[in-house]
Amino acid sequence: MNRPRPLVAGVDGSPESLAAADWAAREAVRRDVPLRLVHAWLWQPLDLPVTQDRESAARRAQEVLKAAETDLADRFPQLELTADVLRDATVPALLRAGREAGMLVIGSRGHGAVLGFLLGSYGRQVIAAAECPVVSVREAKGAPAPGPGEGEVVVGQQGGVAESGDVLRFAFEAAAARHTTLRAVRAWSLPPVYAYSPGSLWLADRFGGLEPYEKAALEQALEPWRQKYPEVEVVEHVEMGSGAEVLLSAASRAELLVVGRQVRQSPVGPRTGSVAHAALHHARCPVAVVPHV
């Protein structure tokens, strides 16, 4: 029997990283999988006229990790938990840890740019390049965690059955683990005049218009996952508008928002895509970004 892949959470002692570790622990318990806490630390002396102690810095890194591990072990005694200091720069350390993970969890700060679990660009780089799903978690600021069935899982669906398979799989798994409703959202807009073709007009006529066509496309994408997870109640949400606006509106009270990130290289490096970018900046709940072909 294959051992389940662990969840990996990055911690640095900040409130947002500890919120991410707490979320990851609860998720690991729900899914009955191990949790691995990691702290990236690389000795990089600064060019300053002061004494810099490598041993003290290494000890502080261990203390940060140990504090998080002890807290979670006390609160989640049923959790299989490990903790490691990764001696590398933050982004490569997390990306390497993510190769063996079922999910990577990092913290984000406030409602501005995603800051990752250390500094500005780290979170964005990890989300854009990770091989596994990455969940960005904001500091909860004392809000109680939703109980079973209290908050929906919302997923953005686009494209066809094959293109959205990985994203829908993750969303159905999350909803099943929470015993809650899954809201599947598909946004659509009128194509420009020059985009109309005999083929597209034939499809629209066949389904009675563009909106019925979009509803049929969503139903088709959901069907194999409904069969695999019959216990998950699914709400289909098809709305005209921009993908980001429709998805954020639908997720205003969600417990988790799931979006996709197409795996492709651009001239400026990996990118998250406009919808995922908007979700990471503006969604109030944790956001899972799932890579797909």
Short description:
The chain is an alpha/beta fold and 293 residues long. The protein has two domains: 7-138, Rossmann fold (3-Layer(aba) Sandwich); 153-292, HUPs (Rossmann fold).
List key phrases describing it.
293 residues, alpha/beta, Rossmann fold, 2 domains, two-stranded antiparallel sheet, 12 strands, 40% helix, elongated
Please give the structural blueprint.
Layout lengths: L6 E4 L4 H17 L3 E6 L13 H22 L5 E6 L3 H9 L4 E6 L11 H10 L4 E5 L14 E4 L8 H14 L3 E7 L9 H10 L2 H19 L5 E7 L2 H8 L5 E7 L2 E2 L2 E2 L3 H9 L4 E6 L1
Parallel strand pairs: 1-2, 1-4, 2-3, 4-5, 6-7, 6-9, 7-8, 9-12
Antiparallel strand pairs: 5-12, 10-11
Can you put this structure into words, describing what you see?
With 293 residues, the protein is of the alpha/beta class. The chain has two domains: 7-138, HUPs (Rossmann fold, 3-Layer(aba) Sandwich); 153-292, HUPs (Rossmann fold). It is 40% helix and 21% strand. The chain is built from nine helices and twelve strands. The chain has helices at 15-31, 54-75, 90-98, 120-129, 165-178, 198-207, 210-228, 243-250, 274-282, and strands spanning 7-10, 35-40, 81-86, 103-108, 134-138, 153-156, 182-188, 234-240, 256-262, 265-266, 269-270, 287-292. A ten-stranded mixed beta sheet has the order 3-2-1-4-5-12-9-6-7-8, with helices on both faces. Helix 3 runs parallel beside helix 4 (120-129), helix 5 (165-178) packs across helix 7 (210-228) and helix 6 packs across helix 7. The longest helix is centred in the N-terminal third of the chain and has 22 residues, at 54-75. It is elongated. This is Universal stress protein. Belongs to the universal stress protein A family. Residues 6-138, 160-291 form the UspA domain. It comes from Streptomyces racemochromogenes.
